[in-house]
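From the shared-data thread, chain only:
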Amino acid sequence: MPLLRVLLLLRGAFGAIFALVVLLAPASTSTAQMLGRNGTFALVDGLLALAVAFALSKAPRFHWLFVLALVDALVRLAIGAVAFAYPDIEARILGSVAFFGGTITACIALGAVGLIFGLAGRRAPVRRGGVVPVLIVSACTLLLGIGLLFGFGTADGRRLLIGAFALAVGLCLLVTGFRLKNPQSTL
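Structure, as tokens:
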């Protein structure tokens, strides 16, 4: 269990720091452009999410969450790999439509499936640990997809939306990691 706690804290801290850099730095700074445009955040977050998924598979209490966490990690890695391989994808019309369409679809699908999965877990006869963070992260992911779909067409609007998403998820993961001190506690 300590490994899962460390990974959640690391991923949460990384997300929160990324969010603060993106939200507080002007869009024109090289740091904000490097983190946001070439997929560095998505790749690192995807790798951390993959480690969290495998740590969940080792913890019997959270084994139910492994598949959802694994799919989430693989989607984040795919988005990061495409953004990293084609840093100027926004400048290409067809590539931009495909990239943002895929990202929006993935966010909405992951968010909806996570909410359904979390709500079904909440009603299970044996209460599963970790349901509340799953619901929060899933709702944030769904809102990110909807926000990208409706009205965040400018680069600055997307930057603010992604920064807010990363901050909310990062803080949720930090709180979850701190609450895992006691392996018997339910989240």
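Helices lie at 2-24, 30-37, 40-58, 66-85, 93-122, 131-149, 155-179.
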